[in-house]
Amino acid sequence: MKMKMKKYIIVSLLTFGALVTYSCSDDDTVATEEEGSNPTFDRGVMLANWADNIIVPAFTDFGTKTSALEDATQIFVDNPTTVNLESLQNSWFNAYISFQNVSLFDVGKAEQINYRNRLNAYPTSVSKIDSYVENESVNFALPASFDAQGFPALDYLLYGLGETNEEILGFYTTHTKADSYKTLLNGVSQTIHSLTEEVITSWTGPFRDSFVTNTASSVNGSVDKMTNDFIYYYEKSLRAGKVGIPAGIFSNDPLPQNVEALYKSDISKELLLASIETTRNFFNGEHFDGTTAGIGFKDYLDFLNSIKGGDDLSVLINQQFNLAEEKAKTLNDNFTIQIGNDNSKMLETYNELQRNVVFIKVDMLQALSIDVDYVDADGD
Amino acid sequence: MKKLFLYPLALTSFLFFSCDDDDDIIQVTQNEIETPTEYVFERDGESTVSFSGQTTRLQMAEEMIPAFFDPSSSTIESLNAMYAHEEGASNFSDDALNSSGKNIKSKVATSIDFFASNTVESAQIQQDFEDFIAGQVNEVFPAWDSLAEPGVPGQIAEGSTPRYVSAKGLEYDQAFVKGLLGAMMTDQMLSNYFSTAVLDAGQNIENNTNEVKDDGKPYTTMEHKWDEAYGYIFGNAPDAANPLATVGEDDNYLNKYLGRQAGDPDFEEVPQNVFNAFALGRAAIVAKDYELRDEQAEIIRKEISEMIGIRAVYYLQIAKIQFNNDNIGAALHDLSEGYGFIYSLRFTRNPDTNAPNFSSEEVDGYLAEMLESSPNGLWDISFETLDELSNTIAARFNFTVEEANND
Q1: β-strands B42-43, B154-158: how paired?
Q2: I need a surface site. Which of A366, B176, B285, B289 has the fewest CB within 10 A?
Q3: What share of chain B in percent tops pLDDT 70?
């Protein structure tokens, strides 16, 4: 810890003017300050806020949505009517929006079981789903099935099988493989819920304490790990997955087939906005219930007096979140339409999101003395 | 990597020096040869550039990759038949490949410098690739639809991508592909077509000097040999005259990793250096300046050899980060890449000694350490082993583990 404090001071001296003034006016006591009386940021308080006021409530709330989704699926499978289909579609939508509140928390059990990849790998593989129906067999635990389960698979099964609900209903009633469709649908919903239960059970067990007490500043410390997860999520799932990849940032041409919720199609923007809100709230330490501002990255940066170009870094990051959100709000609800009509708006949104990658991944990590612990996948 | 950047500087000062030295006719001649910006060479209005055989082999190698992931139709026989294709056999989706008389196997570990009198080892290396095929079919295919774990083959997730590994955690497809880029592409390029035993064979110098062309062809034999080396790295580029425009995207072998070099600030000039050396070397052949030609071959030998060393170290180091994050699937994938690149080290070439940078015995030792130093091979390989291998490999080259690692 002492080494860490020294590092802060060195970084501060090099990077920010503010602490220089502080140390100059206090020449005699610098040593003692360093030795221990200097106030330290209590990482444990931040970790407890994350766990108790954000992560666990978000998962618990999401769990009620996945439970409702499982129930609505069972009701539809038992009695495939238009009304029950609509009710199921509604449950799917509620759960999918709620998923945006928890997707970011890829630590512990969630990380172990590939939670995010199993709930939201898109585009979903229609050919795999079709073959599961055809063969009447599937093993959702196999990585090869990750892009044929979760919310994107339900998106296809609930919206993509036909043009109208009447056509879609036919797959669960008159189709020769109707039973197989129903079994698969049930399996996907049950898997979403049971994986979510696993994660919740872990958080309500001993994992919560081990997470909160692991205050070490090292690659395996909870703050370092969660910070990396936060940045990874922001960079890969939010910025790239929801906007950059479909807008064609990483390819020669736009890939409208890669939007989130391709078949429901008019909720891509809502999913994006929910995700931006989650990341911003987490940055600020905002409680899940939205009533209280707890301790988060914002407070940590303010404690360290992190300045960039004369402005508080935490203010810059919040401003940038707002700019990105404002830009995202101008998009069409349906990103496929937005990309087809005017992709430049997608690119502008991407640019605003990208600006915060610099603030968070470079400036914030430097200020917090945290190393990036992940590497870009090869893509092969 | 500082030495790399000194190349242009050294060349410049050399040029200035020779400019002042009016008596030295040979060096003045060198000064007049400029590095072409495009790989375009013509005689009487006709292109003299040809490497269709290399393009064919690159495309055959490309088609082998998806076949490694097709347990429902690939067999040992079908994969071996792709590897050792016979003219007319329907091994590929592309009929032009089927009708070709060329194949991969006959160019594996067969360079004139390293293997002409070393046929026992050559045969063993050719066999290794058949062993990778057999491993995939016999060990991994039966476990295709089950989860892998230490000591058990099957699939494991890297993010949302399934990876298919052996009981020891090795992806045989990675061993095959990353091994082949050494055993065929690198070996042929650096130690066959750049060999003076090939470039200067028979009457090649005399014929090239007098512009005596091959029977019915627009090129001299020497020009063609040089182009064949070029084809092993740029032969699948859509515009082979300007291959840097798409470098990294044109095949999954040397081209891909030459492109990777551009993404690392420590090595970003390498693709341009390699292209320039190919273009200047070819211009030197046209200008009958064989000394300049050989200097360019040396540059490419050094760069390609180093590139393989860098990738080997990079993947071993990155795997540690993946293990630390419990991304076991990603770690095994990186180690499998590393395994293939280590395999390829024996085909790299030390320009000072003209010998491989690593002996076969050394490479075999490293590979054994990868798979045998722990109970379950790559699954539980120690960080000490990874660091020790990384340091040993980097020490033979002109880069540090740190430089290779911060891609």
Answers
A1: unpaired
A2: A366
A3: 92
